[in-house]
Amino acid sequence: MRNQQGGALSPGKPGDARDQLIQRSLFGEILDWMLMPLLLLWPVSIGVTYLVAKSIANEPFDRSLEDRVTVLAQQVKEVNGELSAHLPFSARDILRADDVDNVYFQISGPQRELIAGDSDMPLPQDEDKPVPWSVMLRDAEMRNTEIRVAYTYVNLQPTRLSGARAEERHALVQVGETLEKRRELANQIIKGVILPEFIILPIAITLLWFALSRGLSPLTSLQDSIRSRRPDDLSPIDSSGVPEEISPLVRSLNEMLGRVSHSISSQKRFIADAAHQMKTPLAGMRMQSELALRQDSRDEIQRSLEQLAKSSASATRLVNQLLALARAENDSPQATPLQPVALGELARDTVQEWFMAARAREIDLGFETDDGPLTVPGNATMLREMLNNLIDNALRYTQRQGRVTVRVHADAERGLAIVEVEDNGPGIAPQERAQVFERFYRILGSEVEGSGLGLAIVREIAQRHDAEVDIFNNPRSTDPRNPGCLFRISMRVALDGTHDGDRSAGEY
Predict the structure, then answer these.
(1) For residue 488, which of 476, 499, 474 has the smallest C-alpha distance?
(2) So what CATH class is 245-330?
(3) pLDDT score of 288 more than 50
(4) Which is the most buried residue in 152, 166, 370, 496, by most CB within 10 A?
(5) Local structure of 502: helix, strand or coil
(6) Which residues contact 238 (CB under 8 A, 6 or more apart)?
(7) Cβ-based neighbours of 103, under 8 Å, separated by 6 or more
(8) CA–CA dist 198, 45 (Å, integer)
(9) pLDDT per residue over 226-260, tens digit each?
(10) CA geometry: angle at 217 spanning 213 and 219, to 5°?
(11) Residues whose CB is less than 8 angstroms from the CB of residue 150 and which lie 6 or more positions away in sequence, other chains included
(12) How far from 127 is each of 132, 141, 150, 262, 480, CA to CA, in Å?
């Protein structure tokens, strides 16, 4: 046996635990996102309404105050250096339009001496540069009550001092009123605006509830439609009455149903094919056992028992291959994380297990590999099964005194690990190389015993590892009648002895 050293196996890493998903209500979540802003903005709107109402209520009263202080200022006269404020009945009516207790006025001279009105009205704080006949407003407090004051300055005759220019003189006129009527008007405005909101808000919430129920009703209908289906009904879901937002979900479900239907059809076909293939060895075993029971000669019984043992071995191999194919086809790629596998060492150990069978058939079984370790992400059990089927296939189709070589090497340019199994048997015609991977396919004219499952298992395992399988004539064969066959498996190499952790393969 020809042999070279292979690589070492690197330890794997345990997979991370998946987080548990918390089920949430779509109806409740949408309702929360719509009601929360509404309920948060509602008190804000009340506050804004109150401020706007106060501003609206202040405007007419401020204009009334301005008119009153203007009328009062027009009555201020200075005669011979004496100030007087003679109020006609029209001016008094304007000044006392409201309740006497709610309106105050004051006229003071240049030295802020009281000329007329209420003596306890507070003075303004901006007397440094008064602007005559300009009405100004301020808030003040009088007799422990908040008031609104309008005031203006009236020009008087300037006083001339010797050696200096004339000094300006002003009289101060103020009119103030309490805030009760302003507050009453503001409250009336607020009541007129806010009270309808207390009625509109519950109505809006109720309409929102019914709108959401109406909008999500297609989901309920879809749920009822799916629940009413028979367990074996895998036909596509009708998406004609489904809203546009739910259509991608329905399409995904239909795609999944298609895959499930295809998987079930494959399983049914597999069971039917397996039952058909098992009939032949079981019928042979039954015939040989019945024949052995009818024989009296020891030699005849021995031959029948040998045929029975041969049929039993054939049935056992068929069952094992059927189980291997079923596991390779139905195993979930996410079941177990791929582990770093020393491909050279795995291939060498597998070849050693076939050494005695190759020797019994007088076939030179060899193994070649690179000097360095070659690690791939994979499932060691599945990869060993793949190599077993490739070696078994090569030994079956190679004549005595032939050669079978298993070769493992790296393709550094493409970052691939290459596994080759070559023989110098009859080879496979190019037009049949695609069909040999189908289950139970046998090349016409071949007298080699087999079930036709070995290469199907090879293809399934290669697909689970994202590997490519190619078939060529053996370039080292020198016999034109036996061009030989070379199976090449191309796998990606693990980076630094590790893998990405996102891909996984099933475990036997």
Answers:
(1) 474
(2) mainly alpha
(3) yes
(4) 152
(5) coil
(6) 225
(7) 68, 95, 96, 97, 175, 176, 177
(8) 12
(9) 888 888 788 888 877 777 777 888 888 888 888 88
(10) 125
(11) 62, 65, 66, 68, 69, 135, 136, 137, 174, 175, 176
(12) 11, 18, 14, 96, 123
CATH number of 47-186: 3.30.450
Rounded Cα distance between 429 and 397, Å, is 14
Please tell me the distance from the alpha carbon of residue 416 to that of residue 470, in angstroms, as a whole number. 14
The encoded tokens of residue 131 equal: 């602007």
* Cα–Cα distance measured from residue 1 to residue 77, given in angstroms and rounded to the nearest whole number: 136
* CB count in 10 Å sphere of residue 217: 11
- Domain residue spans in the chain? 47-186, 245-330, 334-505
363-398 exposure pattern, b = at least 16 Cβ within 10 A, e = fewer = bebbbbbbeebbbbbbbbbbbbbbbbbbbbbbbebb
Amino acid at 309: A
Q: Using alpha carbons only, what angle is made at residue 391 by residues 389 and 395, rounded to the nearest 5 degrees? A: 115
Enumerate residues 6+ apart whose C-beta is below 8 A from 226.
237
Structural element, H or E, at residue 97: none
**180 with 107: CB under 8 angstroms?**
no
Pairing type for strands 403-411 and 364-369 reads parallel
Spatial distance between the Cα atoms of 290 and 301, rounded to a whole number of angstroms: 10
Percent composition of the chain: helix, strand, coil (DSSP 3-state, to 5): 45, 20, 35
Residue among 93, 3, 2 at smallest CA distance from 345: 3
For 85, residues 6+ apart whose C-beta sits below 8 A from its C-beta are: 72, 75, 76, 77, 107, 115, 116
For 109-166, the pLDDT digits (tens) are 888 888 888 888 998 886 666 788 899 999 999 988 999 999 999 988 776 555 556 6
Contact present, 394 and 477 (Cβ < 8 Å): no
CATH of domain 334-505: 3.30.565.10
The answer to whether residues 110 and 171 touch, using CB atoms and an 8 Å cutoff, is: yes
Contact present, 448 and 397 (Cβ < 8 Å): yes
Task: Give the strand order in the sheet containing 403-411.
Answer: 364-369, 403-411, 416-423, 485-492, 468-472
Residue 214, token pair as written in the block:
């109406």
Q: What SS3 state is found at 64?
A: helix
pLDDT in tens, 317-369: 667 766 766 666 655 555 556 788 999 999 999 999 899 989 988 999 999 98
